[in-house]
Amino acid sequence: MQSEPVASPSREPRNTIDAVSLAIIEQLQEDGRRPYAAIGKAVGLSEAAVRQRVQKLLDQGVMQIVAVTDPLTVGLLRQAMVGIKVEGDVDPVADALTAMAECEYVVMTAGSFDLMVEIVCEDDDHLLEVINKRIRALPGVRSTESFVYLKLKKQTYMWGTR
Asked: Which is nearest to 102 in space by CA: 69, 65, 68, 131?
């Protein structure tokens, strides 16, 4: 006798985004300063309708419009991904890392590390200070492993609409 496959629970997205809003996001990903009138022409809406939709997407936390820099051009010459193993509750450590200006990306993970943190620093001395004096000093941090970036081959922010 074969058993029936068990359906896995589906995860509903927090915000359901229609095709027009996705098209607006794509337009802004290409150029975050694109005028609303030009976006409206591309997606078939009025400038006012685009403005309302963009504001709603911003208010809902679906997207942000920010200036993205190349760290090297602004004097931040050392980047690293740091894997962190935590003893006990991961949340307080993640919160402390989130508060550090050098930590650009903090994610809780399953696997070898409890947290993965992207750090952007001025130089090796700055990176050493952040890891050795600040991260390792946090209560609950059991160990760290650093993966220093030698060359960035790809960084894109286009994944939100594919």
From this structure: 131
Residue 33 one-letter amino acid: R
Residues in Cβ contact with 100 at an 8 Å cutoff, skipping those fewer than 6 apart = 130, 134, 135
Distance CA 135, CA 53 (A): 40
- How far is the C-alpha of 121 from the C-alpha of 130, rounded, in Å? 8
Q: Are 29 and 161 in contact (CB under 8 A)?
A: yes
Question: Cα–Cα distance between 75 and 45 in angstroms, integer?
Answer: 41
Confidence class of residue 71 from pLDDT cuts 50, 70 and 90? confident
Angle between helices 47-59 and 36-43 (to 10 degrees): 100
CA distance 21 to 57: 8
Query: What is the spatial distance between Cα 147 and Cα 25, in angstroms, rounded to a whole number?
Result: 32
- Tell me the average pLDDT across 131-149: 97
Residue 16: its pLDDT value, please? 76
What's the chain's Rg over C-alpha atoms?
21
Contact assessment for residue 100 and residue 130, using Cβ atoms and an 8 Å cutoff: yes
Burial class (CB in 10 A: 0-12, 13-18, 19+), 47: middle
Taking the CB of residue 53, how many other CB atoms lie within 10 A of it?
22
Residue 1 pLDDT exceeds 60: no
